[in-house]
Amino acid sequence: MTQVIFKPLYNAHLYAHPGGAESKPIVKTLKLNVMPMKTFLVPTDFSDNSRRALAYACDLARRVDARVVVCHVYDKTSFLPGFNASEQQAYKEEAQQKLNDLIASANSEGVQTETLVRKGDTADEIAGAIEAYGVSLVVMATAGGKSFTKRVFGTTTEAIAKRGLCPVLALPESGTIKPIEHIVYAADFENGDQVTALQLVQLKELFNASLTFLHIKSKKQPDYIDDEYVKQGLLEQFPQAEIQFIEIANDDVAEGITRFVQENNTSLLAFTILHRHFLERVTHNSVSNKLLQNLNLPMLALPENGTLLDLKRQTDSETRRA
């Protein structure tokens, strides 16, 4: 396991305002784990949209020399009383054949692929697969349709993103998935945005895209750190990245983000999933929920802790060391 070590600009929960005065930021050294082997996980319910997710994952894997694990989870409670073990085994074999057919029909040439069939709660089993395979990115369809299957699968995407085990790329059911040319990160400038920048600059370079840090200024959101200090620190840490900073006032953060991405030809929206103090987490996650449920564009949910997004192509020497 490779470790990336650098000094963050600040620590949001040690940066306080005693007596109303600003404190100096406290600098800590973080060790962030980066898995040496890139593995993408694609959960599928065999819908058309999950087929699109597989095609998207294969294209991305081809760019960065990653393998793709395609996973189908079935719930044992979905079987009617009286279904015996042989009938459940028959279903598992049928699901395995569907996975094989799915990979055969996808444009997976040049990509190492693997299939996985698991039984149990969908979110729990996907989380188990993430840990078992050391997954560095989940590519998953999301849906807001009326059918029970679509609602469940869409809810599962949110549940996996919120667990914060690794980055999750959620692809919408409706709308055209465009080439990644303009990445927008919904920044709050309170929660280690330099860690996120490290990952998004890599993504920006991979696709030769533009990168915008969008901050919605809301009275409902915490404001512990001077925004200009954060911006200056990011510019100094990533001088060649050409990050654009935009700040918009709107007390409804989700609405502000939605309006901006719709008006500015955004091809990917990224945000961080927090695991912090209760009130801060509730406020932040309510915004994340609205975005995942309502926006018709690819969204990248980055965990506050957990596996970093690693989309660098390994050199031959790095592959041998791994």
Tell me the name of the CATH class of the largest domain: Alpha Beta
| Head-to-tail CA distance between termini | 8 Å
Radius of gyration using CA atoms only: 20 Å
Alpha plus pi helix count: 9
Total domain units: 2
3D structure, described in words:
It is a single chain. The chain is globular and about 65 Å long. The strands form 2 sheets. A 10-stranded mixed sheet has the order 5-4-3-6-7-12-11-8-9-10, sandwiched between helices. It has a two-stranded antiparallel ribbon with strand order 1-2. The chain is an alpha/beta fold and 322 residues long. The protein is built from 9 helices and 12 strands. 39% of the residues lie in helices and 22% in strands. It folds into 2 domains: 2-26 and 178-297, 3-Layer(aba) Sandwich (Rossmann fold); 39-174, 3-Layer(aba) Sandwich (Rossmann fold), CATH 3.40.50.620.
SSE layout:
Elements: E1 2-6, E2 30-34, E3 39-43, H1 48-64, E4 67-74, H2 85-105, E5 113-119, H3 122-133, E6 137-141, H4 148-163, E7 168-171, E8 182-186, H5 193-207, E9 210-217, H6 227-237, E10 243-249, H7 253-263, E11 268-273, H8 278-294, E12 299-303, H9 316-321
Parallel strand pairs: 3-4, 3-6, 4-5, 6-7, 8-9, 8-11, 9-10, 11-12
Antiparallel strand pairs: 1-2, 7-12
Helix pairs in contact: 3-4, 7-8
